[in-house]
Protein backbone atom coordinates (compact mmCIF):
# COMPACT_ATOMS: atom_id res chain seq x y z
CA UNK A 1 0.00 0.00 0.00
CA UNK A 2 1.25 3.49 -0.84
CA UNK A 3 0.48 6.03 1.88
CA UNK A 4 0.98 9.76 1.41
CA UNK A 5 1.65 11.83 4.52
CA UNK A 6 0.74 15.43 3.78
CA UNK A 7 3.27 17.49 5.72
CA UNK A 8 5.35 20.59 5.04
CA UNK A 9 8.28 19.27 7.08
CA UNK A 10 9.43 15.64 6.76
CA UNK A 11 11.71 16.09 9.78
CA UNK A 12 8.96 16.73 12.29
CA UNK A 13 8.61 13.98 14.91
CA UNK A 14 4.99 13.20 14.02
CA UNK A 15 5.73 12.99 10.30
CA UNK A 16 8.77 10.78 10.82
CA UNK A 17 6.88 8.43 13.15
CA UNK A 18 4.03 7.98 10.68
CA UNK A 19 6.48 7.11 7.91
CA UNK A 20 8.34 4.73 10.22
CA UNK A 21 5.12 3.04 11.37
CA UNK A 22 3.89 2.62 7.80
CA UNK A 23 7.18 1.07 6.69
CA UNK A 24 7.24 -1.27 9.69
CA UNK A 25 3.86 -2.59 8.55
CA UNK A 26 5.21 -3.22 5.04
CA UNK A 27 3.84 -0.15 3.29
CA UNK A 28 5.48 2.54 1.19
CA UNK A 29 5.20 5.97 2.79
CA UNK A 30 5.83 9.23 0.95
CA UNK A 31 5.89 12.70 2.51
CA UNK A 32 4.43 15.37 0.24
CA UNK A 33 4.23 19.09 0.91
CA UNK A 34 0.58 19.94 0.27
CA UNK A 35 1.42 23.60 -0.34
CA UNK A 36 3.39 22.55 -3.44
CA UNK A 37 0.48 20.56 -4.87
CA UNK A 38 -2.23 21.98 -7.08
CA UNK A 39 -5.56 20.63 -8.20
CA UNK A 40 -6.99 20.27 -11.70
CA UNK A 41 -10.76 20.04 -12.01
CA UNK A 42 -12.48 18.76 -15.12
CA UNK A 43 -15.43 16.54 -15.88
CA UNK A 44 -14.97 13.06 -14.36
CA UNK A 45 -11.23 13.59 -13.96
CA UNK A 46 -10.17 15.38 -10.74
CA UNK A 47 -6.39 15.26 -10.40
CA UNK A 48 -3.56 16.52 -8.23
CA UNK A 49 -0.25 17.65 -9.64
CA UNK A 50 3.16 18.34 -8.13
CA UNK A 51 6.45 19.18 -9.83
CA UNK A 52 4.69 19.20 -13.19
CA UNK A 53 3.37 15.64 -12.99
CA UNK A 54 0.13 13.98 -11.90
CA UNK A 55 0.20 12.41 -8.45
CA UNK A 56 -0.96 8.82 -8.94
CA UNK A 57 -0.96 5.41 -7.23
CA UNK A 58 -2.04 6.76 -3.84
CA UNK A 59 -3.94 4.29 -1.66
CA UNK A 60 -4.37 6.45 1.45
CA UNK A 61 -3.59 9.89 2.81
CA UNK A 62 -2.71 10.95 6.36
CA UNK A 63 -3.12 14.75 6.52
CA UNK A 64 -0.87 16.81 8.77
CA UNK A 65 -2.24 20.21 7.80
CA UNK A 66 -0.84 23.24 9.66
CA UNK A 67 -3.24 25.89 10.93
CA UNK A 68 -1.69 28.62 8.77
CA UNK A 69 -2.56 26.76 5.55
CA UNK A 70 -5.87 25.17 6.53
CA UNK A 71 -7.83 26.45 3.52
CA UNK A 72 -5.27 25.37 0.94
CA UNK A 73 -4.37 22.12 2.69
CA UNK A 74 -7.98 21.01 2.97
CA UNK A 75 -8.54 21.76 -0.72
CA UNK A 76 -5.86 19.15 -1.46
CA UNK A 77 -7.40 16.67 0.99
CA UNK A 78 -10.81 17.25 -0.61
CA UNK A 79 -9.37 16.51 -4.05
CA UNK A 80 -8.05 13.17 -2.80
CA UNK A 81 -11.54 12.44 -1.46
CA UNK A 82 -13.02 13.20 -4.88
CA UNK A 83 -10.65 10.62 -6.34
CA UNK A 84 -11.91 7.99 -3.91
CA UNK A 85 -8.68 7.91 -1.88
CA UNK A 86 -9.14 7.09 1.80
CA UNK A 87 -8.05 9.97 4.06
CA UNK A 88 -7.38 9.50 7.78
CA UNK A 89 -9.19 12.79 8.38
CA UNK A 90 -11.54 14.36 5.88
CA UNK A 91 -11.44 18.02 4.87
CA UNK A 92 -14.74 18.82 6.58
CA UNK A 93 -13.50 17.62 9.97
CA UNK A 94 -10.23 19.53 9.69
CA UNK A 95 -12.06 22.76 8.81
CA UNK A 96 -14.52 22.33 11.68
CA UNK A 97 -11.75 21.76 14.22
CA UNK A 98 -9.79 24.84 13.13
CA UNK A 99 -12.73 27.19 13.68
CA UNK A 100 -12.93 27.42 17.47
CA UNK A 101 -16.31 29.18 17.36
CA UNK A 102 -17.88 26.65 15.00
CA UNK A 103 -16.47 23.71 16.96
CA UNK A 104 -17.88 25.06 20.24
CA UNK A 105 -21.26 25.55 18.58
CA UNK A 106 -21.28 21.98 17.29
CA UNK A 107 -20.21 20.50 20.63
CA UNK A 108 -22.76 22.59 22.51
CA UNK A 109 -25.46 21.60 20.03
CA UNK A 110 -24.78 17.93 20.78
CA UNK A 111 -25.19 18.55 24.49
CA UNK A 112 -21.53 17.88 25.30
CA UNK A 113 -19.83 19.55 28.25
CA UNK A 114 -17.83 22.67 27.35
CA UNK A 115 -16.63 25.70 29.33
CA UNK A 116 -19.16 28.52 29.04
CA UNK A 117 -18.08 30.46 25.96
CA UNK A 118 -19.13 33.84 24.55
CA UNK A 119 -18.53 35.34 21.12
CA UNK A 120 -19.18 38.97 20.18
CA UNK A 121 -17.82 41.26 17.48
CA UNK A 122 -18.01 44.58 19.29
CA UNK A 123 -17.15 46.16 22.63
CA UNK A 124 -20.48 47.88 23.35
CA UNK A 125 -21.54 45.20 25.84
CA UNK A 126 -18.26 44.59 27.67
CA UNK A 127 -19.72 44.88 31.18
CA UNK A 128 -22.59 42.51 30.41
CA UNK A 129 -20.18 40.09 28.72
CA UNK A 130 -18.02 39.97 31.86
CA UNK A 131 -21.12 39.43 34.00
CA UNK A 132 -22.40 36.62 31.74
CA UNK A 133 -19.09 34.74 31.84
CA UNK A 134 -19.21 34.82 35.64
CA UNK A 135 -16.74 37.62 36.29
CA UNK A 136 -12.98 37.43 36.42
CA UNK A 137 -10.76 35.58 36.01
CA UNK A 138 -11.67 34.33 32.54
CA UNK A 139 -9.90 33.24 29.36
CA UNK A 140 -9.64 35.21 26.11
CA UNK A 141 -8.81 33.17 23.01
CA UNK A 142 -8.12 34.15 19.44
CA UNK A 143 -10.61 32.30 17.24
CA UNK A 144 -7.76 30.94 15.11
CA UNK A 145 -4.96 30.54 17.67
CA UNK A 146 -3.10 27.22 18.09
CA UNK A 147 -0.76 25.50 20.56
CA UNK A 148 -1.60 27.95 23.35
CA UNK A 149 -0.64 31.00 21.28
CA UNK A 150 -3.28 33.73 21.43
CA UNK A 151 -4.66 32.59 24.79
CA UNK A 152 -4.57 35.05 27.70
CA UNK A 153 -5.96 35.17 31.22
CA UNK A 154 -7.94 38.25 32.27
CA UNK A 155 -7.44 38.27 36.03
CA UNK A 156 -9.14 41.50 37.14
CA UNK A 157 -12.16 43.42 35.87
CA UNK A 158 -10.03 46.46 35.00
CA UNK A 159 -7.57 44.34 33.02
CA UNK A 160 -10.41 42.41 31.41
CA UNK A 161 -12.16 45.55 30.16
CA UNK A 162 -8.91 46.91 28.78
CA UNK A 163 -8.09 43.65 26.97
CA UNK A 164 -11.55 43.27 25.47
CA UNK A 165 -11.74 46.89 24.31
CA UNK A 166 -8.30 46.55 22.70
CA UNK A 167 -9.20 43.38 20.81
CA UNK A 168 -12.52 44.76 19.64
CA UNK A 169 -11.05 48.11 18.56
CA UNK A 170 -8.59 46.21 16.35
CA UNK A 171 -11.32 44.05 14.79
CA UNK A 172 -9.76 40.86 16.20
CA UNK A 173 -12.14 37.92 16.58
CA UNK A 174 -11.99 36.40 20.05
CA UNK A 175 -13.80 33.96 22.30
CA UNK A 176 -14.35 34.66 25.98
CA UNK A 177 -14.35 31.49 28.04
CA UNK A 178 -14.89 30.72 31.71
CA UNK A 179 -11.85 29.88 33.81
CA UNK A 180 -12.08 26.43 35.42
CA UNK A 181 -10.22 27.00 38.67
CA UNK A 182 -10.41 23.39 39.87
CA UNK A 183 -8.51 22.21 36.78
CA UNK A 184 -5.39 23.68 38.44
CA UNK A 185 -3.62 24.63 35.18
CA UNK A 186 -3.92 21.05 33.94
CA UNK A 187 -5.86 19.33 31.20
CA UNK A 188 -6.17 15.88 29.68
CA UNK A 189 -5.26 15.04 26.08
CA UNK A 190 -7.19 12.00 24.88
CA UNK A 191 -5.97 10.63 21.55
CA UNK A 192 -8.87 9.20 19.56
CA UNK A 193 -8.46 6.91 16.53
CA UNK A 194 -11.50 5.46 14.77
CA UNK A 195 -13.87 6.06 17.67
CA UNK A 196 -11.57 4.68 20.38
CA UNK A 197 -9.20 6.33 22.84
CA UNK A 198 -5.77 4.82 22.12
CA UNK A 199 -3.81 6.89 24.62
CA UNK A 200 -4.24 9.65 27.21
CA UNK A 201 -2.03 11.97 29.19
CA UNK A 202 -2.41 14.71 31.77
CA UNK A 203 -0.65 17.96 30.90
CA UNK A 204 0.32 20.55 33.50
CA UNK A 205 1.47 24.09 32.82
CA UNK A 206 4.82 25.35 33.97
CA UNK A 207 4.92 27.44 37.17
CA UNK A 208 3.02 30.67 36.75
CA UNK A 209 1.41 29.69 33.43
CA UNK A 210 -2.25 28.65 33.31
CA UNK A 211 -1.75 27.06 29.86
CA UNK A 212 -0.91 23.37 29.87
CA UNK A 213 0.28 23.10 26.24
CA UNK A 214 3.56 21.22 25.85
CA UNK A 215 4.59 23.82 23.25
CA UNK A 216 4.40 26.41 26.04
CA UNK A 217 6.66 24.48 28.40
CA UNK A 218 4.09 22.24 30.07
CA UNK A 219 4.81 18.71 31.22
CA UNK A 220 2.89 15.47 30.58
CA UNK A 221 2.37 12.18 32.34
CA UNK A 222 0.37 9.03 31.71
CA UNK A 223 -3.17 9.09 33.04
CA UNK A 224 -6.26 6.89 32.98
CA UNK A 225 -9.61 8.26 31.90
CA UNK A 226 -12.90 7.88 33.69
CA UNK A 227 -15.79 6.44 31.71
CA UNK A 228 -17.29 9.93 31.36
CA UNK A 229 -14.00 11.40 30.11
CA UNK A 230 -13.53 8.63 27.54
CA UNK A 231 -17.10 8.96 26.29
CA UNK A 232 -16.74 12.75 26.04
CA UNK A 233 -13.53 12.45 24.00
CA UNK A 234 -15.03 9.94 21.57
CA UNK A 235 -18.22 11.99 21.20
CA UNK A 236 -16.25 15.19 20.55
CA UNK A 237 -14.22 13.61 17.74
CA UNK A 238 -17.39 12.14 16.23
CA UNK A 239 -19.24 15.47 16.43
CA UNK A 240 -16.51 17.23 14.45
CA UNK A 241 -16.31 14.32 11.96
CA UNK A 242 -12.72 13.50 12.90
CA UNK A 243 -11.37 9.95 12.64
CA UNK A 244 -8.04 10.91 14.24
CA UNK A 245 -8.14 13.60 16.93
CA UNK A 246 -6.52 14.95 20.04
CA UNK A 247 -9.31 15.94 22.41
CA UNK A 248 -8.39 18.30 25.24
CA UNK A 249 -10.53 17.97 28.37
CA UNK A 250 -10.71 19.96 31.57
CA UNK A 251 -11.60 18.18 34.81
CA UNK A 252 -14.30 20.30 36.44
CA UNK A 253 -16.70 20.01 39.35
CA UNK A 254 -19.51 19.36 36.85
CA UNK A 255 -17.65 16.69 34.89
CA UNK A 256 -15.31 16.68 31.89
CA UNK A 257 -15.42 19.80 29.74
CA UNK A 258 -14.17 19.75 26.14
CA UNK A 259 -11.74 22.59 25.63
CA UNK A 260 -10.53 21.89 22.10
CA UNK A 261 -10.41 19.18 19.43
CA UNK A 262 -7.22 19.01 17.37
CA UNK A 263 -7.26 17.46 13.89
CA UNK A 264 -3.45 17.20 13.62
CA UNK A 265 -2.44 16.23 17.17
CA UNK A 266 1.26 15.85 17.82
CA UNK A 267 2.60 12.37 18.51
CA UNK A 268 5.74 13.12 20.47
CA UNK A 269 4.14 14.05 23.79
CA UNK A 270 1.52 11.31 23.78
CA UNK A 271 3.95 8.55 22.75
CA UNK A 272 6.49 9.65 25.36
CA UNK A 273 3.89 9.84 28.15
CA UNK A 274 2.10 6.58 27.34
CA UNK A 275 4.90 4.50 25.83
CA UNK A 276 2.40 3.44 23.16
CA UNK A 277 2.86 3.20 19.41
CA UNK A 278 0.21 5.80 18.53
CA UNK A 279 1.60 6.22 15.00
CA UNK A 280 1.18 2.49 14.49
CA UNK A 281 -2.46 2.69 15.63
CA UNK A 282 -3.13 5.38 13.02
CA UNK A 283 -1.49 3.37 10.25
CA UNK A 284 -3.37 0.22 11.27
CA UNK A 285 -6.65 2.17 11.13
CA UNK A 286 -5.80 3.44 7.64
CA UNK A 287 -4.76 -0.03 6.52
CA UNK A 288 -8.00 -1.65 7.70
CA UNK A 289 -10.18 0.96 6.01
CA UNK A 290 -8.35 0.80 2.68
CA UNK A 291 -8.78 -2.98 2.72
CA UNK A 292 -12.48 -2.62 3.54
CA UNK A 293 -12.87 -0.06 0.75
CA UNK A 294 -11.23 -2.43 -1.73
CA UNK A 295 -13.49 -5.32 -0.70
CA UNK A 296 -16.58 -3.16 -1.14
CA UNK A 297 -15.50 -2.20 -4.66
Write structural notes for this entry.
The protein is an alpha+beta fold and 297 residues long. The protein folds into 3 domains: 2-89 and 280-296, Rossmann fold (3-Layer(aba) Sandwich), CATH 3.40.50; 96-113 and 182-263, 2-Layer Sandwich (D-amino Acid Aminotransferase, Chain A, domain 1); 117-179, ATP-grasp fold, A domain (Dna Ligase, domain 1). Helix content is 34%, strand content 27%. The strands form 4 sheets. Strands 14-13-12-15-16 form a 5-stranded antiparallel sheet, with helices on both faces. A 4-stranded parallel sheet has the order 2-1-6-7, with helices on both faces. Helix 1 packs across helix 9 and helix 2 (70-82) packs antiparallel against helix 3. The radius of gyration is 20 Å and the shape is globular. It starts with a strand and ends with a helix. The mean pLDDT is 92.
Number of strands: 16
What does the largest sheet look like? 5 strands, antiparallel
In what order do the strands lie side by side in the largest sheet?
14-13-12-15-16
Reading off the top of the CATH hierarchy, the class of the largest domain is best stated as: Alpha Beta
Strand content: 25-35%
- Write the H/E string, N to C: EHEEEEEHEHHEHEEHEEEEHEEHH
CATH architecture of the largest domain: 3-Layer(aba) Sandwich
- The CATH topology of the largest domain is given as Rossmann fold
Query: Which bin fits the share of residues in helices?
Result: 25-40%
Structural class: alpha+beta
Overall structural domain count: 3
Q: How many helical stretches?
A: 9
The residue-averaged pLDDT reads 92
Envelope shape: globular
Our measurement of the CA-to-CA distance between the termini, rounded to an integer number of angstroms, reads: 16 Å
Low-confidence stretches: none
Radius of gyration: 20 Å
Amino acid sequence: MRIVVLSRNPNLYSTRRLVEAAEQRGHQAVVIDHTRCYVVMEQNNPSIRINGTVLTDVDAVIPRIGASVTAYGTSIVRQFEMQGVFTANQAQGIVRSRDKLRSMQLLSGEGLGIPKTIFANHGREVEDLIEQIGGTPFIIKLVEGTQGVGVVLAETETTAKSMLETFYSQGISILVQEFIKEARSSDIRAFVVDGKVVGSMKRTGRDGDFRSNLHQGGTAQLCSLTKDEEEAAVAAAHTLSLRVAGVDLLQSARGPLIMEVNSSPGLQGIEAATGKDIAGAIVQFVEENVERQRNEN
